[in-house]
Amino acid sequence: MRLLVFLLMAILTSEISADELALSQNESFVLADAGIHKMTFEELNSGEIFVIRGLKVPSSQQFEGSQTNEKHLPKLVKVKTGKYYLKSITPAFSNIGVRRFKKTECDGCFFLLQPGAVSYLGRWNVDLEYKSRNKVEWHIQRQYSHENLKILKQKNSKLTELPLFVANEEGKVLKIDWKEL
């Protein structure tokens, strides 16, 4: 059983190379950045999950908004299409526990992945607000960087053969032309 779980996680967390751009009818690519955290997303109906791992060791330069830094580029992951929500956040800091979300309580954490396309989820920033010794509030914000998309377009021109969508917090999907970047 452990081996099966390990293999499943290895498949779900691996990034896609330029040679692996073939998609079936029920697959999609996700471009997302979890900042310095690890984020797990789950499909509402099938339970399909994928994980976006953020930076391991943050440096002061990465927090100063250098969005074109190579380490800030979104990860490209192949997943099944569907409606996903943010299931959990594992903070980079060991003194803060994992935050798990129920499907109904995750306002602004839903998005729809289109089949045979690239969906850009943006950079997920998590601000922690300490209310008391044992109470922490989580505030999730998403940023979208045209610069990151331009760099990815230059690094992997085969991506431009697929339609590009931006999935926002309300679950709405906006189609963008690669040529406009």
Architecture overview:
Mean pLDDT is 75; it is low at 1-14 and 57-68. Strands 1, 4, 8, 9, 10 and 11 form a 6-stranded mixed β-sheet that branches. Strands 2, 3, 5, 6 and 7 form a 5-stranded antiparallel β-sheet that branches. The chain has 2 helices and 11 strands. With 181 residues, the protein is mainly β. A hairpin with a 5-residue loop joins strand 10 and strand 11. It starts with a helix and ends in a 5-residue tail after the last strand.
Brief summary of the model shown:
The protein has 181 residues and is mostly beta strands. It contains two helices and eleven strands. The chain has helices at 2-13, 146-155, and strands at residues 27-33, 38-43, 49-53, 75-80, 82-90, 99-100, 110-113, 118-132, 135-143, 164-167, 173-176.
Helix content: 10-25%
Shape: globular
Relative strand content = 35-45%
Which H/E pattern describes the elements? HEEEEEEEEEHEE
The radius of gyration over CA amounts to 16 Å
Key phrases:
181 residues; six-stranded mixed β-sheet; five-stranded antiparallel β-sheet; 2 helices; disordered N terminus; single chain; mainly beta
